[in-house]
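Write out this protein's structure.
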Amino acid sequence: MNDAAAWSGLEEARRWVREATRIAVLTGAGVSAESGVPTFRDAQTGLWANFRPEELATPEAFRAHPQRVWDWYAERRARLADVQPNAGHVALAEFQARHPDRLTLITQNVDGLHQKAGSTGVLALHGNLFEDRWLDPCLN
């Protein structure tokens, strides 16, 4: 693709965004990799390379080996604690702030960087490492 074709495509995308009533954006590992977040494949090194995700990231795994699962999540949280959103996260948050109720942000990432950048209502398909969830409903 030459520069003229690339610019033409970019202009067309800008027009679509300008004219759209609602926009849905789906992000994955690539948006956070620039911030230094290891992709799922990169993260499967060291001690945790010895386990399949199903052995750590399921309710069954937690019930069978709670300490192992807590340790795995603690290590993942520690790796991400100081990571900052990059220009992509910030641009999406700024667009959302300028155009309330127009952007639906969906992510496959669990790093919380969209929220850290200021995005609200993020649909985190795989959850968020910094938000714990109950395995069982609370009893009244």
